Popeye domain containing 2 (Nannospalax galili), 364 residues
Amino acid sequence: MSTNSSTVGQLLWQGPVCSSWKQDMEGAVYHLANCFLLLGFMAGSGVYGCFYLFGILGPGYLCYVLWGWLDACGLDIILWSFLLTVACLLQLAHLVYRLRVDTLPEEFDLLYKTLYLPLQVPLQAYKQIIHCCHEQVLTLSTEQTYAVEGETAINRLSLLLSGRIRVSQDGQFLHYIFPYQFLDSPEWESLQPSEEGTFQVTLTAETDCSYISWPRKSLHLLLNRERYISCLFSALLGYDISEKLYTLNDKLFAKFGLRFDIRLPSLYLVLGPSASDGGPESEKDDEEVFEAAVSPALARPITVLPTPPCSPPPAVTNFPAPLPRARMSRPDSSVLDSRTPSQNSSHVTSKGQAPLAPVHTPEL
Protein backbone atom coordinates (compact mmCIF):
# COMPACT_ATOMS: atom_id res chain seq x y z
CA MET A 1 0.00 0.00 0.00
CA SER A 2 2.85 2.32 0.82
CA THR A 3 4.54 1.47 -2.45
CA ASN A 4 1.42 2.51 -4.44
CA SER A 5 1.07 5.79 -2.54
CA SER A 6 4.71 6.62 -3.15
CA THR A 7 4.29 5.95 -6.88
CA VAL A 8 1.24 8.22 -7.10
CA GLY A 9 3.02 10.93 -5.15
CA GLN A 10 5.98 10.69 -7.48
CA LEU A 11 3.76 11.06 -10.53
CA LEU A 12 1.89 14.04 -9.05
CA TRP A 13 4.78 16.03 -7.60
CA GLN A 14 7.82 15.03 -9.61
CA GLY A 15 6.23 14.08 -12.95
CA PRO A 16 7.62 11.77 -15.60
CA VAL A 17 11.20 12.31 -16.56
CA CYS A 18 11.59 12.89 -20.30
CA SER A 19 14.77 11.50 -21.64
CA SER A 20 14.75 13.85 -24.59
CA TRP A 21 12.47 16.47 -26.13
CA LYS A 22 11.58 16.56 -29.79
CA GLN A 23 13.26 19.35 -31.62
CA ASP A 24 10.71 19.49 -34.46
CA MET A 25 7.16 20.82 -34.09
CA GLU A 26 4.15 18.72 -34.97
CA GLY A 27 2.70 18.98 -38.43
CA ALA A 28 0.04 21.42 -39.62
CA VAL A 29 -2.70 18.78 -39.36
CA TYR A 30 -2.20 18.54 -35.60
CA HIS A 31 -2.45 22.30 -35.10
CA LEU A 32 -5.47 22.47 -37.39
CA ALA A 33 -7.22 19.83 -35.27
CA ASN A 34 -6.59 21.86 -32.12
CA CYS A 35 -7.99 24.98 -33.80
CA PHE A 36 -11.16 23.07 -34.66
CA LEU A 37 -11.53 21.92 -31.07
CA LEU A 38 -11.02 25.44 -29.75
CA LEU A 39 -13.75 26.83 -32.01
CA GLY A 40 -16.08 23.92 -31.32
CA PHE A 41 -16.04 24.32 -27.54
CA MET A 42 -17.12 27.96 -27.96
CA ALA A 43 -20.60 26.83 -29.10
CA GLY A 44 -23.76 28.09 -27.43
CA SER A 45 -26.82 26.27 -26.14
CA GLY A 46 -29.94 25.07 -27.89
CA VAL A 47 -30.40 23.02 -31.02
CA TYR A 48 -28.40 25.32 -33.26
CA GLY A 49 -25.64 25.51 -30.68
CA CYS A 50 -25.41 21.71 -30.76
CA PHE A 51 -25.29 21.85 -34.55
CA TYR A 52 -22.33 24.20 -34.34
CA LEU A 53 -20.59 22.15 -31.63
CA PHE A 54 -20.70 18.75 -33.32
CA GLY A 55 -20.25 20.27 -36.77
CA ILE A 56 -16.88 21.74 -35.70
CA LEU A 57 -15.71 18.90 -33.44
CA GLY A 58 -16.21 16.30 -36.18
CA PRO A 59 -13.62 17.80 -38.58
CA GLY A 60 -11.30 18.39 -35.58
CA TYR A 61 -11.26 14.73 -34.60
CA LEU A 62 -10.91 13.76 -38.26
CA CYS A 63 -7.73 15.85 -38.36
CA TYR A 64 -6.50 13.92 -35.35
CA VAL A 65 -7.07 10.68 -37.29
CA LEU A 66 -4.95 12.02 -40.15
CA TRP A 67 -2.27 13.21 -37.72
CA GLY A 68 -2.09 9.81 -36.01
CA TRP A 69 -1.91 8.06 -39.38
CA LEU A 70 0.64 10.32 -41.07
CA ASP A 71 2.84 11.81 -38.32
CA ALA A 72 2.37 10.15 -34.92
CA CYS A 73 1.99 6.65 -36.34
CA GLY A 74 0.03 5.56 -33.27
CA LEU A 75 -2.77 3.03 -33.52
CA ASP A 76 -4.41 4.18 -30.28
CA ILE A 77 -4.51 7.79 -31.51
CA ILE A 78 -6.15 6.70 -34.75
CA LEU A 79 -8.78 4.51 -33.04
CA TRP A 80 -9.84 7.03 -30.39
CA SER A 81 -9.98 9.90 -32.85
CA PHE A 82 -12.00 7.79 -35.27
CA LEU A 83 -14.53 6.85 -32.56
CA LEU A 84 -14.96 10.51 -31.57
CA THR A 85 -15.48 11.47 -35.22
CA VAL A 86 -18.21 8.83 -35.63
CA ALA A 87 -19.91 10.02 -32.40
CA CYS A 88 -20.04 13.60 -33.73
CA LEU A 89 -21.53 12.45 -37.03
CA LEU A 90 -24.20 10.39 -35.22
CA GLN A 91 -25.13 13.42 -33.09
CA LEU A 92 -25.52 15.54 -36.24
CA ALA A 93 -27.76 12.93 -37.83
CA HIS A 94 -29.92 12.82 -34.67
CA LEU A 95 -30.28 16.62 -34.65
CA VAL A 96 -31.32 16.67 -38.31
CA TYR A 97 -33.95 14.01 -37.60
CA ARG A 98 -35.32 15.98 -34.62
CA LEU A 99 -35.57 19.16 -36.65
CA ARG A 100 -37.38 17.38 -39.43
CA VAL A 101 -39.87 15.84 -37.00
CA ASP A 102 -40.43 19.13 -35.13
CA THR A 103 -41.00 21.14 -38.31
CA LEU A 104 -44.57 22.44 -38.55
CA PRO A 105 -46.51 23.29 -41.70
CA GLU A 106 -46.42 26.93 -42.69
CA GLU A 107 -49.93 27.75 -41.47
CA PHE A 108 -49.44 26.11 -38.08
CA ASP A 109 -45.99 27.62 -37.64
CA LEU A 110 -47.41 31.11 -38.27
CA LEU A 111 -50.28 30.39 -35.89
CA TYR A 112 -47.84 29.37 -33.17
CA LYS A 113 -45.70 32.47 -33.58
CA THR A 114 -48.73 34.80 -33.68
CA LEU A 115 -51.05 33.40 -31.02
CA TYR A 116 -49.29 30.89 -28.80
CA LEU A 117 -45.64 31.96 -28.65
CA PRO A 118 -46.46 35.38 -27.03
CA LEU A 119 -48.18 33.36 -24.26
CA GLN A 120 -45.03 31.22 -23.89
CA VAL A 121 -46.87 28.02 -24.72
CA PRO A 122 -44.43 25.08 -24.94
CA LEU A 123 -44.03 23.53 -28.34
CA GLN A 124 -45.00 20.08 -27.05
CA ALA A 125 -48.32 21.41 -25.71
CA TYR A 126 -48.95 23.17 -29.02
CA LYS A 127 -48.33 19.91 -30.88
CA GLN A 128 -51.01 18.21 -28.78
CA ILE A 129 -53.43 21.00 -29.68
CA ILE A 130 -52.87 20.75 -33.43
CA HIS A 131 -52.81 16.96 -33.28
CA CYS A 132 -56.36 17.13 -31.92
CA CYS A 133 -57.48 18.89 -35.12
CA HIS A 134 -55.63 16.28 -37.25
CA GLU A 135 -53.33 19.05 -38.60
CA GLN A 136 -55.84 19.83 -41.35
CA VAL A 137 -56.51 23.28 -42.76
CA LEU A 138 -60.05 23.73 -44.11
CA THR A 139 -61.16 26.37 -46.59
CA LEU A 140 -64.24 28.46 -47.35
CA SER A 141 -64.87 30.16 -50.68
CA THR A 142 -66.44 33.58 -51.02
CA GLU A 143 -70.10 33.73 -49.86
CA GLN A 144 -69.94 30.15 -48.58
CA THR A 145 -71.59 29.69 -45.20
CA TYR A 146 -69.83 28.12 -42.26
CA ALA A 147 -73.02 27.91 -40.18
CA VAL A 148 -76.70 28.66 -40.81
CA GLU A 149 -78.93 30.08 -38.13
CA GLY A 150 -81.16 27.46 -36.55
CA GLU A 151 -79.85 24.63 -38.75
CA THR A 152 -76.15 23.95 -38.18
CA ALA A 153 -75.37 21.87 -35.12
CA ILE A 154 -72.74 23.00 -32.62
CA ASN A 155 -70.32 20.09 -32.84
CA ARG A 156 -66.90 21.74 -33.27
CA LEU A 157 -64.73 24.74 -32.41
CA SER A 158 -62.95 26.59 -35.22
CA LEU A 159 -60.25 29.23 -35.48
CA LEU A 160 -59.91 31.50 -38.51
CA LEU A 161 -56.44 31.60 -40.10
CA SER A 162 -57.01 33.94 -43.04
CA GLY A 163 -59.84 35.87 -44.66
CA ARG A 164 -62.88 37.58 -43.15
CA ILE A 165 -66.26 36.18 -42.08
CA ARG A 166 -69.51 38.11 -41.66
CA VAL A 167 -71.82 37.32 -38.74
CA SER A 168 -75.53 38.10 -39.13
CA GLN A 169 -78.83 37.31 -37.45
CA ASP A 170 -82.19 37.45 -39.21
CA GLY A 171 -80.40 39.07 -42.16
CA GLN A 172 -79.02 41.84 -39.98
CA PHE A 173 -75.25 42.37 -39.83
CA LEU A 174 -73.69 42.00 -36.38
CA HIS A 175 -69.91 42.04 -36.70
CA TYR A 176 -66.90 40.60 -38.54
CA ILE A 177 -64.54 37.79 -37.59
CA PHE A 178 -60.90 38.42 -38.47
CA PRO A 179 -57.85 36.09 -38.61
CA TYR A 180 -56.80 34.36 -35.39
CA GLN A 181 -60.26 34.75 -33.86
CA PHE A 182 -62.58 31.89 -32.99
CA LEU A 183 -65.60 31.41 -35.22
CA ASP A 184 -67.93 29.92 -32.64
CA SER A 185 -66.57 30.74 -29.18
CA PRO A 186 -69.96 31.94 -27.77
CA GLU A 187 -71.64 28.75 -28.96
CA TRP A 188 -68.86 26.64 -27.45
CA GLU A 189 -69.19 28.28 -24.05
CA SER A 190 -73.00 28.23 -24.09
CA LEU A 191 -73.25 24.43 -24.03
CA GLN A 192 -72.12 21.78 -21.60
CA PRO A 193 -70.18 18.80 -23.00
CA SER A 194 -73.30 16.62 -22.82
CA GLU A 195 -75.66 19.19 -24.36
CA GLU A 196 -76.53 19.79 -27.99
CA GLY A 197 -77.65 22.93 -29.78
CA THR A 198 -77.75 24.87 -33.02
CA PHE A 199 -76.27 28.17 -34.12
CA GLN A 200 -78.30 31.33 -33.44
CA VAL A 201 -76.36 33.31 -36.07
CA THR A 202 -75.25 32.83 -39.67
CA LEU A 203 -71.55 32.91 -40.55
CA THR A 204 -70.72 33.74 -44.17
CA ALA A 205 -67.28 34.08 -45.75
CA GLU A 206 -66.75 37.47 -47.37
CA THR A 207 -63.41 36.42 -48.86
CA ASP A 208 -61.59 33.16 -49.41
CA CYS A 209 -60.95 31.87 -45.90
CA SER A 210 -58.93 29.13 -44.25
CA TYR A 211 -59.48 27.80 -40.76
CA ILE A 212 -58.77 24.87 -38.46
CA SER A 213 -61.47 22.99 -36.61
CA TRP A 214 -61.42 20.82 -33.48
CA PRO A 215 -64.15 18.17 -33.11
CA ARG A 216 -66.16 18.82 -29.97
CA LYS A 217 -65.72 15.42 -28.34
CA SER A 218 -62.01 15.13 -29.11
CA LEU A 219 -61.30 18.61 -27.76
CA HIS A 220 -63.27 17.96 -24.56
CA LEU A 221 -61.25 14.80 -23.98
CA LEU A 222 -58.02 16.74 -24.45
CA LEU A 223 -59.12 19.51 -22.09
CA ASN A 224 -60.14 17.00 -19.42
CA ARG A 225 -56.80 15.22 -19.73
CA GLU A 226 -54.46 18.24 -19.90
CA ARG A 227 -55.12 20.91 -17.27
CA TYR A 228 -52.63 23.38 -18.77
CA ILE A 229 -54.30 23.24 -22.19
CA SER A 230 -57.72 23.61 -20.52
CA CYS A 231 -56.60 26.83 -18.77
CA LEU A 232 -55.08 28.07 -22.02
CA PHE A 233 -58.31 27.58 -23.97
CA SER A 234 -60.34 29.21 -21.19
CA ALA A 235 -58.19 32.33 -21.43
CA LEU A 236 -58.28 32.43 -25.24
CA LEU A 237 -62.04 31.85 -25.44
CA GLY A 238 -62.78 34.42 -22.72
CA TYR A 239 -60.71 37.06 -24.50
CA ASP A 240 -62.36 36.25 -27.83
CA ILE A 241 -65.90 36.49 -26.41
CA SER A 242 -65.13 39.81 -24.72
CA GLU A 243 -63.82 41.20 -28.01
CA LYS A 244 -67.06 40.18 -29.73
CA LEU A 245 -69.15 41.80 -26.97
CA TYR A 246 -67.28 45.09 -27.22
CA THR A 247 -67.66 44.98 -30.99
CA LEU A 248 -71.44 44.70 -30.53
CA ASN A 249 -71.36 47.45 -27.91
CA ASP A 250 -70.04 49.91 -30.48
CA LYS A 251 -73.33 49.54 -32.36
CA LEU A 252 -75.67 49.98 -29.37
CA PHE A 253 -76.91 53.50 -28.76
CA ALA A 254 -79.64 54.84 -26.53
CA LYS A 255 -81.90 57.81 -27.17
CA PHE A 256 -80.19 61.10 -28.10
CA GLY A 257 -76.99 59.29 -29.11
CA LEU A 258 -76.08 57.96 -25.66
CA ARG A 259 -74.28 54.62 -25.75
CA PHE A 260 -75.24 51.57 -23.74
CA ASP A 261 -72.42 50.04 -21.73
CA ILE A 262 -72.20 46.25 -21.57
CA ARG A 263 -70.93 46.54 -17.99
CA LEU A 264 -74.38 47.75 -16.86
CA PRO A 265 -76.27 44.55 -16.02
CA SER A 266 -79.69 46.24 -16.00
CA LEU A 267 -79.71 46.90 -19.75
CA TYR A 268 -80.47 44.66 -22.69
CA LEU A 269 -77.10 44.43 -24.38
CA VAL A 270 -77.87 42.92 -27.76
CA LEU A 271 -77.89 44.63 -31.11
CA GLY A 272 -81.12 45.61 -32.83
CA PRO A 273 -82.39 47.85 -35.58
CA SER A 274 -84.81 49.83 -33.44
CA ALA A 275 -82.02 51.62 -31.55
CA SER A 276 -80.24 52.97 -34.61
CA ASP A 277 -82.71 52.60 -37.50
CA GLY A 278 -85.94 53.78 -35.91
CA GLY A 279 -87.00 55.73 -38.98
CA PRO A 280 -88.05 59.35 -39.40
CA GLU A 281 -91.07 59.06 -37.10
CA SER A 282 -89.02 57.99 -34.11
CA GLU A 283 -86.47 60.72 -34.81
CA LYS A 284 -89.26 63.29 -34.90
CA ASP A 285 -90.66 62.06 -31.58
CA ASP A 286 -87.17 62.21 -30.04
CA GLU A 287 -86.81 65.81 -31.16
CA GLU A 288 -90.19 66.73 -29.64
CA VAL A 289 -89.30 65.18 -26.30
CA PHE A 290 -85.89 66.87 -26.37
CA GLU A 291 -87.45 70.29 -27.10
CA ALA A 292 -90.00 69.80 -24.33
CA ALA A 293 -87.21 69.12 -21.87
CA VAL A 294 -85.07 72.09 -22.91
CA SER A 295 -87.77 74.80 -23.44
CA PRO A 296 -88.65 75.33 -19.72
CA ALA A 297 -85.01 75.98 -18.94
CA LEU A 298 -84.68 78.55 -21.72
CA ALA A 299 -87.78 80.42 -20.50
CA ARG A 300 -86.31 81.20 -17.08
CA PRO A 301 -85.45 84.93 -16.49
CA ILE A 302 -81.88 86.05 -15.95
CA THR A 303 -81.41 87.84 -12.63
CA VAL A 304 -78.62 90.33 -11.94
CA LEU A 305 -77.42 90.92 -8.40
CA PRO A 306 -77.11 94.61 -7.38
CA THR A 307 -73.70 96.09 -6.69
CA PRO A 308 -72.96 96.84 -3.00
CA PRO A 309 -72.40 100.59 -2.48
CA CYS A 310 -69.34 100.30 -0.19
CA SER A 311 -67.42 97.45 -1.78
CA PRO A 312 -63.71 98.38 -2.39
CA PRO A 313 -62.34 99.23 -4.84
CA PRO A 314 -65.20 101.44 -6.10
CA ALA A 315 -64.36 100.86 -9.78
CA VAL A 316 -64.99 97.12 -9.61
CA THR A 317 -68.54 95.81 -9.64
CA ASN A 318 -69.90 92.33 -9.20
CA PHE A 319 -70.83 90.67 -12.44
CA PRO A 320 -74.20 89.01 -12.92
CA ALA A 321 -74.51 85.58 -11.40
CA PRO A 322 -73.99 82.79 -13.92
CA LEU A 323 -77.06 81.33 -15.51
CA PRO A 324 -78.01 78.05 -13.89
CA ARG A 325 -77.32 75.30 -16.42
CA ALA A 326 -80.57 73.92 -17.74
CA ARG A 327 -80.82 70.26 -16.83
CA MET A 328 -82.62 68.16 -19.35
CA SER A 329 -85.14 66.08 -17.54
CA ARG A 330 -85.23 62.45 -18.54
CA PRO A 331 -88.34 61.74 -20.58
CA ASP A 332 -90.88 59.79 -18.66
CA SER A 333 -90.90 56.10 -19.42
CA SER A 334 -94.67 56.26 -20.04
CA VAL A 335 -94.07 58.78 -22.82
CA LEU A 336 -91.57 56.51 -24.49
CA ASP A 337 -93.80 53.48 -24.08
CA SER A 338 -96.85 55.26 -25.53
CA ARG A 339 -95.09 56.17 -28.77
CA THR A 340 -94.67 52.89 -30.58
CA PRO A 341 -95.69 50.01 -28.32
CA SER A 342 -96.42 47.71 -31.23
CA GLN A 343 -93.01 48.40 -32.79
CA ASN A 344 -91.17 47.67 -29.55
CA SER A 345 -92.82 44.31 -28.93
CA SER A 346 -93.33 43.01 -32.47
CA HIS A 347 -89.89 41.47 -32.75
CA VAL A 348 -90.02 39.96 -29.27
CA THR A 349 -93.35 38.22 -29.77
CA SER A 350 -92.55 37.06 -33.28
CA LYS A 351 -89.85 34.53 -32.33
CA GLY A 352 -90.00 34.37 -28.56
CA GLN A 353 -86.36 35.49 -28.19
CA ALA A 354 -84.70 38.30 -26.29
CA PRO A 355 -85.38 41.76 -27.76
CA LEU A 356 -82.80 42.99 -30.20
CA ALA A 357 -82.76 46.45 -28.63
CA PRO A 358 -83.68 47.95 -25.24
CA VAL A 359 -87.46 48.19 -24.90
CA HIS A 360 -87.48 50.26 -21.72
CA THR A 361 -84.66 52.64 -20.84
CA PRO A 362 -84.15 52.30 -17.06
CA GLU A 363 -84.19 55.28 -14.80
CA LEU A 364 -80.58 55.71 -13.61
Q: What stands out?
A: The two ends are 99 Å apart (CA to CA). Residues 26-102 form one domain.
